[in-house]
Amino acid sequence: MSIKHSLLALLHEGPMYGAQLRGEFEARTGGTWPLNVGQVYTTLSRLERDGLVAGAGAPDDEGRIAYELTDAGRAELDAWWSVPVGREQTPRNELAIKLALAVTLPGVDVQQIVQTQRTATMTHLRDLTRLKRTADGEDLAWELVLESLVFADEAEIRWLDHVEARIARLDPSQAKASRTAHVASAGSAGVREAVTRR
């Protein structure tokens, strides 16, 4: 997530204090990625150092300084809007790392790890689906974020099914037990039904 560019995008609307920027960011993303106010001010300091933002006038009575975009900041923001999000640096996926380590270590019940994760992800997906049903169509920003999370959970469940199938091919004795656990997982039918109704 680019905090730098997110702050530039918010400042495009006009000067804001750090706390305002934090509040606007969280409101527009549905609070999905909370920001520490210290992180906001650290980023603003870097942006000011790089000439992308500048202080907008004198500090107020509470000592707060509002920041505004510079011409260089507008150019940087325009460039960000115009290019796709890069995939050069793949973010660390803790689940992928956990399973990659688990399949290489003796005595680790990989099938159980997969099943535990699947149950947790299905529960999360069910919660997101409930939220999606209550959306009124008036907050497009929040709904886009919510749909992104739904698609990510659905993709994770498909990937876990794939992992389980790969492991079962290597150790057929695990296949039957795994299928039984999968069918019995808490609320799995309800989640699939809820997803189908979306």
Helix-strand blueprint:
Blueprint: H1 3-11, H2 18-28, H3 37-49, E1 53-55, E2 67-69, H4 71-82, H5 94-102, H6 110-134, H7 140-170, H8 173-184, H9 188-197
Antiparallel strand pairs: 1-2
Helix pairs in contact: 2-3, 6-7, 6-8, 6-9, 7-8
Write structural notes for this entry.
The structure is a single chain. With 198 residues, the protein is mainly alpha-helical. It has 9 helices and 2 strands, in the order H-H-H-E-E-H-H-H-H-H-H. It folds into 2 domains: 3-82, Arc Repressor Mutant, subunit A, CATH 1.10.10; 94-197. It is 67% helix and 3% strand. The protein has a two-stranded antiparallel ribbon. Helix 6 runs antiparallel to helix 7 (140-170). The longest helix has 31 residues, at 140-170. The chain is elongated. The protein starts with a helix and ends with a helix.
Key words describing this protein structure:
Arc Repressor Mutant, subunit A, about 200 residues, mainly alpha, disordered C terminus, two-stranded antiparallel sheet, about 5% strand, 2 domains
| Helical percentage | 55-70%
Radius of gyration: 22 Å
Unreliable residue stretches: 174-198
What gap, in angstroms, lies between the N and C termini? 27 Å
Q: Order of SSEs, N→C?
A: HHHEEHHHHHH
The beta-strand count equals 2
Biggest sheet descriptor: 2 strands, antiparallel
How big a fraction of the residues is strand? under 5%
User: What is the number of helical segments per DSSP (H or I, 4+ residues)?
Assistant: 9
> Tell me, what's the shape?
elongated
Question: In the residues, how many domains can be counted?
Answer: 2
